[in-house]
Amino acid sequence: xxxxxxxxxxxxxxxxxxxxxxxxxxxxxxxxxxxxxxxxxxxxxxxxxxxxxxxxxxxxxxxxxxxxxxxxxxxxxxxxxxxxxxxxxxxxxxxxxxxxxxxxxxxxxxxxxxxxxxxxxxxxxxxxxxxxxxxxxxxxxxxxxxxxxxxxxxxxxxxxxxxxxxxxxxxxxxxxxxxxxxxxxxxxxxxxxxxxxxxxx
Length: 201
Description:
Blueprint: H1 10-27, E1 32-34, H2 42-47, E2 52-55, H3 71-82, E3 86-90, H4 97-105, E4 108-110, H5 119-128, E5 135-139, H6 142-151, E6 155-159, H7 168-188
């Protein structure tokens, strides 16, 4: 008897999985990659029409558990203010440390964010009076910061983590990130220009 069960050729299945993987990668692909937050050119942000910057806290603007940012980061934030841009820290952290650091830097703050959930990023934009088109998100993690920003159509910038010390669960996520990081960075293809966000089909 002939087998009437439908079968999927291995090549077709493999190509389908590749397409699904490629689409998934786009959700965690940033618009730019910089070595650190203070390496981001504020003038470039302003020329691109950016009016607000959402920043992750730990290992983005301060090292994990650090009580204050470095002088270089503090100077960068001062440059942000001087250029007329608003800034808001959005952190999954629930401690008062985030509020203390934000206050010292003259930044707005949203804590308990549960990134990549969108509510905290939307609140940050509301506090800054910006829209997704005029907001950039800066963070050091693909699956929380970059994914969260991309889901809302924000410009996204990935920075290198300031320290290898971090929360145990973050280390687990970071290990997963390493398995796709090379493909993600290759997908940036030389960094897309801010202000020209490529939307998903």
